[in-house]
Q: What sequence folds into this?
């Protein structure tokens, strides 16, 4: 959806226009629905489009504005959600065929409700890897989600639909979930911004779980200010989510103009300075040099942290699906099924050693973060692979494409750190850089990202083709 | 294939554990499952030697960032 100008508008611009009466929310919703109808047959980012609900909600926004009310900071902004978020009246598929037999959700997930309460208009649910177990969104039930920059390539996963829908310009903001990198990997491969806040900062109530001790709700958007405004609406304590943290809410959107100020910046080395194609590492070096960053940050044993994340993911994930693995294993996507079955057979001692390691690693990370406020790390080891591509060459070694895409994201989400992935163009296909901070320091991440965006060191990578 | 038909310890363990867990697994799925399980066990084993996680103050820590 372009609405005005030659580039799709971001959420803040749309909301400003709707609140000021320059544009009707109903017209914005029609525009988004038309763009999805025009382009998504090729991209396959949506699994359901909620035309009736969107137009009803948009009509209510217009009525409230006509009555002199302020419908909120996201007035009339169309958004969509990964199909593991509950949407009232819809079946929560979580990318599976098995869940299609479930009864429809009776209420919206908390995150969906918070966005709609702020004036946003839900237009549909989005494609994903089955049960969020993947980094490529090659879903055997609903088809692969295609990368708008090159439809022969994957969008990344597991929130592939969430990234592709923003990159294609169908909607300016989407929700995804991130367990091991499932917001940051697709955001990077599709050239949009992705924010995975601190573990427990956004309620997961009404979100179908994958691995409860690692699951986060995240946001994908066209601009840093969209991330900030959306995060401000979303975060806050939810007493009915057992892992929700009880901390004061903060407004990050009004901190974006503060610049870097006295923030101490660093750049990761060791594990994060190898293992990717040269361009994936170069984008970090270029950004660090432009910002004059000399401080190095070493996270000891990050490779083992990735290993522990894999063990915990397989064990917790498989336990959630044990009944279906016993009764109807053939209905899973084969890739998901085999990994869940393997996870179900892992001895408890392996799970516990991984959780103990996690405590040790968390202490190591907190020690490293004592001397720096935000550090940079690569986001993915390479650009978007082709659909069906099983292997890639990195440093002369053959790696398995799908699991390896998470090599830089997994060690960070493993200890619940807030991470913001910023997109970088100029390399043919999009690449990205992760900005990493200590727990609950999302505002610092957003400030750094805003400064990078202002200096054009990052920014949404525009797709050559527009669907309107 | 019965558990005794293979010499691979991961394969033998997997088949016995699957039986005990009540999981019915198609013969054609086993190679992939055993490969994934082998990777997970190797990764878990690589954690044993690291850091100072033992003896743990809390044997089953609840994670908070």
A:
């Amino acid at each position: 959806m372009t609405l005005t100008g030659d580039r799709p508008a971001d959420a803040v611009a749309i909301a400003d226009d709707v609140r000021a009466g320059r544009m009707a929310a109903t017209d914005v919703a029609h525009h988004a629905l038309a763009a999805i109808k025009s382009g998504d047959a090729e991209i396959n980012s949506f699994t359901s489009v909620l035309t009736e609900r969107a137009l009803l909600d948009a009509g209510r926004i217009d009525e409230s504005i006509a009555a002199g009310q302020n419908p909120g900071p996201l007035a009339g902004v169309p958004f969509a959600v990964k199909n593991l978020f509950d949407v009232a009246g819809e079946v929560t598929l979580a990318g599976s065929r098995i869940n299609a037999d479930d009864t429809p959700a009776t209420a919206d997930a908390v995150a969906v409700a918070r966005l709609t309460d702020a004036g946003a208009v839900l237009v549909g649910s989005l494609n994903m890897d089955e049960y969020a177990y993947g980094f490529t969104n090659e879903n055997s039930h609903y088809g692969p989600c295609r990368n708008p920059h090159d439809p022969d390539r994957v969008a990344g996963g597991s929130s592939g639909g969430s990234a592709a829908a923003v990159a294609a310009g169908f909607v300016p903001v989407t929700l995804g979930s991130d367990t091991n990198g499932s917001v940051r990997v697709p955001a990077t491969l599709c050239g949009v911004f992705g924010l995975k806040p601190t573990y427990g900062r956004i309620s997961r109530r009404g979100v179908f779980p994958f691995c409860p001790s690692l699951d986060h709700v995240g946001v994908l958007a066209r601009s840093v200010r969209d991330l900030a405004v959306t995060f401000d609406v979303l975060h806050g304590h939810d007493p009915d989510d057992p892992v929700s943290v009880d901390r004061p809410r903060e407004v990050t959107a009004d901190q974006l103009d503060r610049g870097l100020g006295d923030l101490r910046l660093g750049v990761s080395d060791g594990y994060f300075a190898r293992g990717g194609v040269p361009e994936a590492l170069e984008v970090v070096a270029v950004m660090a040099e432009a910002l004059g960053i000399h401080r190095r940050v070493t996270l000891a044993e990050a490779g083992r942290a990735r290993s522990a994340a894999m063990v915990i993911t397989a064990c917790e994930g498989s336990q959630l699906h044990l009944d279906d693995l016993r009764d109807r294993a053939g209905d899973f996507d084969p890739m998901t099924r085999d990994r869940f079955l393997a996870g179900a057979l892992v001895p408890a001692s392996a799970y516990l050693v991984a959780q103990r390691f996690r405590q040790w690693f968390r202490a190591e990370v907190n020690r490293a973060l004592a001397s720096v406020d935000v550090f940079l790390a690569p986001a993915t080891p390479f650009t978007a692979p082709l659909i069906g591509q099983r292997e890639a060459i990195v440093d002369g070694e053959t790696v398995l494409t799908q699991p390896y895409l998470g090599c830089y994201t997994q060690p960070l989400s493993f200890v619940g750190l807030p991470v913001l992935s910023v997109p970088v163009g100029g390399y043919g296909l999009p690449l990205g850089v992760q900005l990493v901070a200590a727990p609950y320091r999302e505002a610092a991440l957003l400030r750094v990202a805003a400064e990078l965006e202002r200096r054009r060191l990052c920014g949404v990578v525009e797709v050559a083709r527009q669907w309107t | 294939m019965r558990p005794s038909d293979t010499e691979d310890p991961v394969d033998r363990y997997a088949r016995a554990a699957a039986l005990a867990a009540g999981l019915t697994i198609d013969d054609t799925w086993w190679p992939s499952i055993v490969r994934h399980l082998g990777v997970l066990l190797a990764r878990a084993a690589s954690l044993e030697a690291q850091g100072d996680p033992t003896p743990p103050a809390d044997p089953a820590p609840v994670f908070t960032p």
Notes: Chain B is about 50% helix and 0% strand. The interface with chain A takes residues 13-14, 17-18, 21-26, 29, 32-34, 36-37, 39-41, 43-44, 46-48, 50-54, 56, 58-61, 63-65 of chain B (CB under 8 Å). The mean pLDDT of chain B is 80. The two ends of chain B are 45 Å apart (CA to CA).
